[in-house]
Amino acid sequence: MTAEIEFHAEDVDIPDYIEQATIPNWLEKTASHYGATISSLNYIFCSDEYLLEINQTYLDHNYYTDIITFPFKQGKVVEGDIFISVDRVKENAAEFSAADEKSEMLRVMAHGLLHLIGFTDKDEEAEAKMRSAENKALEIFADFIP
Length: 146
Known about the structure:
Blueprint: E1 4-9, H1 23-33, E2 37-46, H2 48-59, E3 67-73, E4 77-85, H3 86-96, H4 101-117, H5 124-142
Parallel strand pairs: 1-2, 2-4
Antiparallel strand pairs: 3-4
């Protein structure tokens, strides 16, 4: 099965550092590490306001977030739409200063994929497992850097 991984932009530009030739391979390798395959993924980059509207309309939440994942298939074969606020990723990278913007974006992209695979972040224990899986995904990405 060949994964269909696409990148879209709603009301922002796709960040320049999103290497559309490399990132799909990284995502496939990350999914494979957890025993899953990607059928179809759409990453939609947008603004805070765009994602807030989605959060209000579809989830009845009235707050900003960095990511919303809409699953079509979860588990061993994943499909979904992953909306990411470029504004929120920039702000979180600056606020937490643990990473640069690209690293924070990669973490958030992995986070959406990991949700589709079955990871959650609803309590402290699940959040710790999610964070560990995100770190593993970033380690896997390092294999793609020449």
